[in-house]
Amino acid sequence: MTSPLLQVSGVSKAFGGVVANNDISLEVPEGKIIGLIGPNGSGKTTLFNSIVGYHPIDSGSILYCGNDISNMHVPEIARLGLLRTFQQTRVYGLMTCMDNMRISVPHVNEGFRHMVARHSESVADRAEELLEFVGLYSKRRLMAGDLSFGQQKLLEFAMALMNEPRLLLLDEPTAGINPTLINGLIDRLQRASETLGITLLVIEHNMRVIMNLAEHIYCLAHGEMLADGAPSELQNDQRVIDAYLGAH
Ligand code: ADP
Ligand code: MG
Fold first, then answer.
1. What spacing in Å lies between the alpha carbon of 247 and ligand 2's midpoint?
2. Which residues surround ligand 2, an ion (CB under 5 A)?
3. 210: which of 65, 157, 178, 204 fits an S-S bond (Cβ 3.0–4.6 Å)?
4. Of the bound ligands, which one is closest to the alpha carbon of residue 86?
5. pTM of the entire structure?
6. From atom 13 of ligand 1, which residue's Cα is the shortest distance away?
7. Distance 45 CA to ligand 1 centre (A)
8. Strand partners of residue 221
9. Ligand 1 atom with least separation from CA of 40
10. Which residue's C-alpha comes closest to atom 14 of ligand 1?
């Protein structure tokens, strides 16, 4: 059996007295879309932060492509093709969509970034291709701040794709999006997986979305791994149902 692209083993992380993640283990096989669910405050975003190197973990290990990345920092991990998007969008509202895309190129340090990005034909070509891919090509000259919230999420997704990720962690991609745009977003995520070969680990609050998208789902509650299984299994798992009901 081949080892998974990402293997999180026994990871714990506390903030002061708050244990945000306690002994969490999960696996993400290459080429798959895996879901991560759980009520608010259950530790989902903290786990993403630990994986991408945003903060050190207290114990456990994180293997990516067989290498231990638990002591690496964000840029180093990003260079290996492991990236995340945020629960809140992080686009630059006063820049055009194309300029947002251009400054999202990888392997360029901050001081150099604008200069390189503006002058590279191939960067511009790729930016246009990816804007087309997410359905924003016609908006490419608009200020990102003039897009709807859902379109900004699509732009942020396209910006992440500029980095040619191998594994992309998406934190609540449909949060705040108009329901009519949600199906389009699901379709793009599936196509990113199928045609670009990107592996996805997706935090999602919308049960319908994650049940359609992921082939295996992990459920956190109170910082612990409560259950995992196929969508149909989790949908009928009384522990998962109780965790969600208890959260309201
Ligand atoms: P989720 O994404 O599932 O809603 P989080 O990972 O954001 O949950 O939060 C899990 C717990 O950790 C919460 O109790 C939250 O208040 C706490 N927490 C998260 N980040 C920090 C931080 N930087 N400092 C202190 N507490 C934090
Ligand atoms: Mg969160």
1. 14
2. 45
3. 204
4. 2
5. 0.91
6. 41
7. 7
8. 224
9. 4
10. 41
Q: What secondary structure does DSSP assign to the chain, as a single string?
A: -PPPSEEEEEEEEEETTEEEEEEEEEEE-TT-EEEEE-STTSSHHHHHHHHTTSS--SEEEEEETTEE-TT--HHHHHHTTEEE--SS----TTSBHHHHHHTT-SS--HHHHHHHHHH-HHHHHHHHHHHHHTT-GGGTTSBGGGS-HHHHHHHHHHHHHTT--SEEEEESTTTT--HHHHHHHHHHHHHHHHHS--EEEEE-S-HHHHHHH-SEEEEEETTEEEEEE-HHHHHT-HHHHHHHHHT-
Protein residue with least CA distance to atom 5, ligand 1: 43
Q: Which ligand is nearest to the CA of 41?
A: 1
Residues within 6 Å of ligand 1 by CB: 15, 18, 20, 38, 40-46
Place of tokens 């244990």: 19
Return per-residue pLDDT of the chain as tens, 248 residues.
678 999 999 999 999 999 999 999 999 999 999 999 999 999 999 999 999 999 999 999 999 999 999 989 998 998 899 998 876 678 999 999 999 998 887 654 555 555 555 557 788 899 999 999 999 999 999 999 999 988 998 999 999 999 889 999 999 988 888 888 888 888 889 998 999 899 999 999 888 899 999 999 999 999 999 999 999 999 899 999 888 876 65
SS3 217: strand
